[in-house]
What we know:
Layout: E1 4-8, H1 12-23, E2 27-31, E3 44-46, E4 49-51, H2 63-72, E5 78-80, E6 85-89, E7 92-96, E8 103-105, H3 110-117, E9 121-123, E10 128-134, E11 137-142, E12 147-151, E13 153-156, H4 160-167, H5 173-177, E14 182-192, E15 202-205, E16 210-215, E17 228-232, H6 234-239, H7 245-260, E18 267-280, E19 289-291, E20 296-298, H8 308-326
Parallel strand pairs: 1-2, 1-13, 2-9, 6-15, 13-20
Antiparallel strand pairs: 3-4, 5-8, 6-7, 10-11, 11-12, 14-17, 14-18, 15-16, 16-17, 19-20
Helix pairs in contact: 1-3, 1-8
The structure holds flavin-adenine dinucleotide (FAD).
Amino acid sequence: xxxxxxxxxxxxxxxxxxxxxxxxxxxxxxxxxxxxxxxxxxxxxxxxxxxxxxxxxxxxxxxxxxxxxxxxxxxxxxxxxxxxxxxxxxxxxxxxxxxxxxxxxxxxxxxxxxxxxxxxxxxxxxxxxxxxxxxxxxxxxxxxxxxxxxxxxxxxxxxxxxxxxxxxxxxxxxxxxxxxxxxxxxxxxxxxxxxxxxxxxxxxxxxxxxxxxxxxxxxxxxxxxxxxxxxxxxxxxxxxxxxxxxxxxxxxxxxxxxxxxxxxxxxxxxxxxxxxxxxxxxxxxxxxxxxxxxxxxxxxxxxxxxxxxxxxxxxxxxxxxxxxxxx
Length: 327
Ligand SMILES: Cc1cc2nc3c(=O)[nH]c(=O)nc-3n(C[C@H](O)[C@H](O)[C@H](O)COP(=O)(O)OP(=O)(O)OC[C@H]3O[C@@H](n4cnc5c(N)ncnc54)[C@H](O)[C@@H]3O)c2cc1C
């Protein structure tokens, strides 16, 4: 029998779960506090340039994820990034081959969430504040006091601490979610005034300050103008989480200039983003959490792997397990 599901969070996990439920004949409403679907898989547009300030690319190794993307058509916005890649190790740049291929959304990583959200009822700019259960089912109440529902069951896909806050009153799932640590990560977006570029298009960094750096213009479908994204090392980001943003930028600039032997000069534009829940420090190791008595479930990249692929695996498993539990 068809059921009505509420999904909190329109990131990759929530949208995957919603698609799976809808494909099995259920009705689904997805709510997200952000301005567009996609969650952390997002693209920042500034002055005609685009910066993937969350995940710079993703890879697929699981045949289930590949089949899900291909049969649903949601991966038709993906292209392989034919860039020059390297890793920074002990101060040296070592070229590396992208194996498996590094996939990017075109024209930006944010397109992946928009594509997944097609044909799904997704409402954005809805900040869920609390959940209520009555004989009729679950009701979701947002910060403005508007309510949504009733739903037969809910899936919460917010990062662990935020999901725990919503579930605490209703389920012991909160106790499992609460201690899952998420890493902080600074992403610095910069458009240099000159045609300055990094020596490689994508650089994984084993460095005390840097984690990743990329020439965004080398990705398919991007404007042909220098646009760099630099991610800070997670441990360093944690140590600087409350530092003055201008000091964070100064230190990142120094590290980039020293490590890659380039001069960035005064930027045409720049912006710093602090991800408080960038990726799980150590995922839980189980695909999702289900409380069948309460008709509640939780999923996200914190479950299996801190990646887009891990979020798809978790969302898919969560929808499947919840449907079986309620059947
Ligand atoms: C800097 C950085 C680098 C990364 N690098 C890579 C990489 O190289 N490769 C890779 O595959 N992955 C990478 N990732 C990880 C990848 O982005 C995530 O694994 C994936 O996007 C997680 O999806 P999700 O659906 O689990 O969570 P999210 O994308 O966080 O989705 C959760 C959603 O819940 C919403 N939400 C939260 N609370 C509420 C509320 N109260 N009410 C309404 N909505 C709410 C949020 O707005 C969000 O949209 C990176 C991430 C970051 C930040």
